[in-house]
């Protein structure tokens, strides 16, 4: 938490918050890459007519979790975008507060 708050512990380091949001989005993108690769492997094996009990069970298991895995990745990405948006909102609020103080001085 120390990297998110400034030296006095009250002001937010919005640059660090933005970077953290970016890291969360990058993680989601990496996860999507893994899911896409795995999806490609499963489709390729199906196209090549993989056979046998284990193949059928693997496709059933994958089919049952595919949508939720991609949904999880999308949710992680949305969290990262929300973190970045929060930092932008904090920056805008600080700017408006500063402008208000200057205008009233």
Fill in the keyword field for this structure:
2 helices, mainly alpha, 105 residues
Number of helices: 2
The gyration radius over C-alpha positions equals: 22 Å
Beta fraction: under 5%
State the low-pLDDT regions, or none. Answer: none
**Which overall shape is indicated by the principal axes computed on the Cα atoms?**
rod-shaped
Report the average pLDDT across residues: 83
- Tell me the series of helices and strands, N- to C-terminal: HH
Structural class: mainly alpha
Biggest sheet architecture: none
Task: Note the gap between the termini.
Answer: 34 Å
What level of helicity do the residues show? over 70%
DSSP summary, beta strand count = 0
Q: How would you summarize what this structure contains?
A:
The chain is an all-alpha fold and 105 residues long.
Q: Care to describe what's here?
A:
82% of the residues lie in helices and 0% in strands. The radius of gyration is 22 Å and the shape is rod-shaped.
Give me the secondary-structure topology:
Layout: H1 14-47, H2 53-104
Helix pairs in contact: 1-2
């Amino acid at each position: 938490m120390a990297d998110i708050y400034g030296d006095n512990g009250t002001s937010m380091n919005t640059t660090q918050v933005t970077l953290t949001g970016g890291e969360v989005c990058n993680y989601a993108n990496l996860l999507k890459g893994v899911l896409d690769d795995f999806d490609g492997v499963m489709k390729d094996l199906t196209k090549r007519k993989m056979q046998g009990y284990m193949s059928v069970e693997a496709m059933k298991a994958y089919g049952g979790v595919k949508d939720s895995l991609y949904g999880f990745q999308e949710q992680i990405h949305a969290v990262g975008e929300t973190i970045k948006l929060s930092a932008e909102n904090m920056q805008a609020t600080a700017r408006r507060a500063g402008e208000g103080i200057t205008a009233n001085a």
